[in-house]
Design goal:
single chain; 347 residues; alpha+beta; Jelly Rolls; four-stranded antiparallel beta sheet; 8 helices; 20% strand; Oxoglu/Fe-dep_dioxygenase_dom; oxidoreductase activity; iron
């Protein structure tokens, strides 16, 4: 398979192989330099969602809805997931990637929906250009999987998935209210007791020609919400109003949250999944852990009836299960949001 980590660690590597040349391969309009001036990314203070002060709670739900509508992205603070647990989760994933290749290949299942899958790029069997990225994808819920090594991975990942799942469900309750629905509407309608929770650990090693390579190209995520943590080496960019915005995290205890495709379907396009990408650098390794929280795998997701007005706001998207969309996405080349084609444009 040939992982990027081993390639990056070659002593004589001064340029990247042509198959990793992203910006000179296509006529890219989203070049690395096309980055907007620094903008203030929304911040949501998690405990306020359960504030006993009605005005305070109403304000944060309004802010949450505005962040989902205007950005599709926000920073979550005071979320209750221990910083020590986040650090241990990042460290154990680093340990996984530091193992010999033959050990990691024990998790290299070929099927794109394998519950435990190690690989490189996105889908090497169809990728026209390779991305400067190695990954480990794991199903966390409703069934929990874990690589056999390194020691302790299962215990740390189990605790981390349980804590973050609680956070995601609480956020969805707030989002449900921000859409004018009952607090538990999304949780019940999407059968979140059986939610499909997937962890993707991404490794982006130093690259000798970062101006030519791409860690991960512009894309949106499947599911309802993605919760992401990373080490302190930046590289995440979010597309806002047609410009790329660098995401600078002031505290290592911040969780980055973005709206995903099934929330766009469910909200009938009111809350849109956000395009984001990962760029690379020539000095440090970036690790990110992206955890998608989707509905029950076989639940058909359609726009909520209360958000559909036949003439003014007709249903924009067809129904699709999370599992169907996952298979469709992972079996093909990654291409922005081309998979999320509306039935017709909303007005």
């Amino acid at each position: 398979m040939g992982c990027v980590k081993d390639l990056a660690e070659l002593n004589d590597l001064t340029s990247i192989p042509t198959k990793y040349t992203y910006f000179n391969t296509f006529d890219q309009e989203d070049g690395i330099d096309a980055v907007a001036a620094e903008e203030k990314i929304p911040i949501i203070d998690f405990p306020l969602l359960n504030s006993a002060i009605p005005d305070q709670r109403a304000k944060v739900i309004q802010d949450l809805g505005k962040a989902c509508q205007d950005w599709g992205f926000f920073m979550l603070v005071n979320h209750g997931v221990p910083e020590s647990l986040m650090e241990r989760m990042l460290a154990i994933c680093q340990e996984f990637f530091n193992q010999p290749e033959d050990v990691k290949l024990q998790s290299a299942e070929e099927h794109v929906l394998a519950p435990l899958r190690y690989g490189t790029s996105f889908n090497p069997s169809v990728d026209k250009v390779f991305f400067w990225r190695d990954f480990l994808r794991i199903w966390m819920h409703p069934q929990f999987y874990s690589p056999p090594t390194p020691a302790g991975f299962s215990e740390i990942a189990m605790e981390y998935s349980q804590r973050t799942r609680q956070v995601a469900r609480e956020l969805l309750r707030g989002i449900s209210q921000s859409l004018g629905l009952e607090e538990c509407y999304i949780d019940k309608a999407m059968e979140m007791d059986s939610c499909f929770q997937i962890l993707v650990a991404n490794l982006y090693p130093p690259c000798p020609q970062p101006e030519l390579a791409m860690g991960f190209p512009p894309h949106s995520d499947t599911g309802l919400l993605t919760l992401l943590i990373q080490n302190q080496n930046g590289g995440l960019q979010v597309n806002h109003n047609g410009k790329w915005v660098n995401v600078h995290v002031s505290s290592p205890n911040t969780i980055l949250v973005n709206v995903a495709d099934h929330l766009e379907r469910l909200s009938n396009g009111k809350y849109k999944s956000v395009l984001h990408r990962a760029i690379v650098n020539n000095k440090t390794t970036r690790i990110s852990l992206a955890e998608t929280h989707g509905p029950c795998p076989d639940k058909i997701v359609t726009p909520v009836a209360e958000l559909v007005e036949n003439e003014t706001y007709p249903a924009v998207y067809p129904g699709m299960t999370y599992k169907e969309e996952m298979y469709s996405r992972l079996s093909n080349q990654i291409a922005g949001k081309s998979h999320l084609e509306p039935l017709h444009e909303s007005t």
